[in-house]
Amino acid sequence: MKIKPLVIISCLGIIAGVISVIVYNDRRESQPPIAVNYNPYDNGIYATGIVESFQPTGSNVNIYSEVSNRVTKIFVTNGQKLKKNDPILAIDDSVQRELVEKDIAQIQLDKANLLNVSQQLDKIKKSYSLDAKSVSKNILDNAINAVKIAKATFMVDTQQYKSDQNLLNKYVLRSPIDGLILRITPSVGDYVSPQGSYDLYTQAMLPSVQMGSAEFDLQVRAYVDEILIPRLPGPSKLEATMFIRGLNNASVPLEFVSIQPYAIPNIELSDQRNERVDVRVLPVIFKFKKPKDINIFPGQLVDVYLKGKA
Q1: Nearest-CA neighbor of 64 among 185, 156, 180?
Q2: Is 21 a domain residue?
Q3: What is the CATH number of the domain that holds 134?
Q4: pTM beyond cutoff 0.90
Q5: 37 and 123, same domain (yes or no)
Q6: 107-143 tens-digit pLDDT
Q7: Closest Cα to residue 65, out of 182, 180, 162, 174?
């Protein structure tokens, strides 16, 4: 007697069901969170912050090239301290250098021409002083005008040389402050422009170089949600604590610096230019001393709790 295929399929289905019940009923304990931070204030206000180098005004220094071309040399490394006007990177200046060399040659030609017409004028004046009839008034006037034209041409070409030389100097990007190199976006061979440098990872144009203060102090820019702004106390009573993500209750006390009194769209942290929900945030700036036993770097996201109104 042959077993019908329907019976075999039914048995296989029963076996598969039993195995599924055993597998899905296997309870696994959930892993504990990596780190937990607790609100240290009774009326604490939560805000997300980003660490920056401490600046009296503004944020990190963003450096853009004033000219466009490919990078030929980089003189510094990330994390290096610089003095004002120290070179950071060099941009291909071959075309601009040729213009400057052409200007130098033109100035030399202008000098020779000016010397020639000046000597001609001196000869004509001497001849005219000895015998007024030996030289016509027209020739004398033309010689005088030729010297004036030569001098004007020399001055124009000299100014052109200075302008081209100043532009040539911009092909070396220099440090505008005494500070620390936070990030160099381009590599040798990359293209830079006044719009910045293309970053492969973010696929956006970023500043060619970012610098921060060379001081040991850092600052955190906390963004308070607009619905929590009414709960903020006055600046004289503003207290805050920063927590480092990834560490259990690793707190750092903050010192209030200022409030930027203008609520902005919540695009700073996510770097998204188009928000689906128009949420505004208020930037509040604090500074702090970098702990010796905790690694904190500019650009790092942190959790900030501000003491709200009682």
Answers
A1: 185
A2: no
A3: 1.10.287
A4: no
A5: no
A6: 999 999 999 999 999 988 888 788 777 888 888 889 8
A7: 174
Domain extent, residue 122, equals 94-169
Q: Averaged over 282-293, what is the pLDDT? A: 89
Displacement of CA 161 from its chain's centroid (Å): 31
pLDDT tens profile 188-233: 999 999 999 988 877 788 899 998 876 667 899 999 999 999 999 8
Contacts of 195 (CB under 8 A, 6+ apart): 64, 205
At residue 158, what is the residue type? T
Beta partners for residue 199, in sequence order: 204
More confident residue, 72 or 56: 72
User: Both 206 and 64 in a single domain?
Assistant: yes
Q: Which of 157, 180, 214 is the last residue of a domain?
A: 214
Cα end-to-end distance, the chain, whole Å: 86
Please indicate, yes or no, whether residues 147 and 261 belong to a single structural domain of this protein.
no
Q: How confident is the model at residue 269 (pLDDT cuts 50, 70, 90)?
A: low
Q: Which helix (H) or strand (E) holds 157?
A: helix 137-169
Residue 71 in domain? yes
Interior CA angle at 123 toward 122 and 127, to 5°?
115
176 neighbors 87 (Cβ within 8 angstroms) = no
Pairing of strands 240-243, 217-225: unpaired
Please report, for the domain that includes residue 232, its CATH number.
Answer: 2.40.30.170
Query: Does residue 11 lie within any of the structural domains?
Result: no
DSSP conformation letters of 141-152 = HHHHHHHHHHHH
Take residue 183 and report the two structure tokens written for it: 């990030």
Domain presence at residue 303: yes
Q: Are 287 and 218 in contact (CB under 8 A)?
A: yes
